[in-house]
Amino acid sequence: METESRILLIEGAKAFRIDMNERMMEAFDLYLRELLKWNQKINLTAIRSEREIVLKHFIDSLSVFPYLSQISSLLDIGSGAGFPGIPLKMIQPSLEVTLIDSVRKKVDFQRHIIRTLGLKGIVAIHGRIQDKEILQSLGDRFDAAIARAFSDLKTLFTLALPLLKKGGVVLAMKGESVNKEWQPLSTVEGTGCRLLKTTTFTLPFTSIKRSILLFEKI
What we know:
This protein has helices at 3-14, 22-39, 50-62, 85-91, 104-117, 132-138, 153-160, 179-186; strands at 73-77, 96-101, 122-126, 142-148, 164-174, 193-202, 209-217. It is of the alpha/beta class. It has a single domain (63-217), classed as Rossmann fold. A 7-stranded mixed β-sheet has the order 3-2-1-4-5-7-6, with helices on both faces. The protein is globular and about 50 Å long.
């Protein structure tokens, strides 16, 4: 990882109360190099520069870290090249993480990274979250479900809530215009959850506005 990228990752992580040590930096460096290498052959992400990956994938993924203090099991829906689930696992090893994505090549990459980094307590599943066999196998056992730009909120609730424990939380990572999605739903009974918190921030070292919405299953 280039010096500039290392500085961006260290300082960007600090914005979310994360102190990166050398072991973590080496792991993120390996993740970055493998992502760049695989992306030359298969389209894992449209973001292809080292700087952009650090900012828009790594740091963006870490932005939800402050919300994980009471969470021990996390379901990452539509995890793509492993974001945000793998970076969160890398900085919080005790977190049990399940990744799911419908694109086989992306799941193959996730499994490769999990093996390469020697991560334990994390599994990557190929499939669609609404598939009956996946719903049955995962059950209502997660403390939290997370999705990053995966779907509209109503769809996310429909997919995620059956897999959460009562009192479990949905973490929705969204862009700046998220209120256009949430406000119509807030007056609709039967969503199965209630809004706990909304945070809007600027992604460090960019002008990109991001939002994190936290919902509780009721």
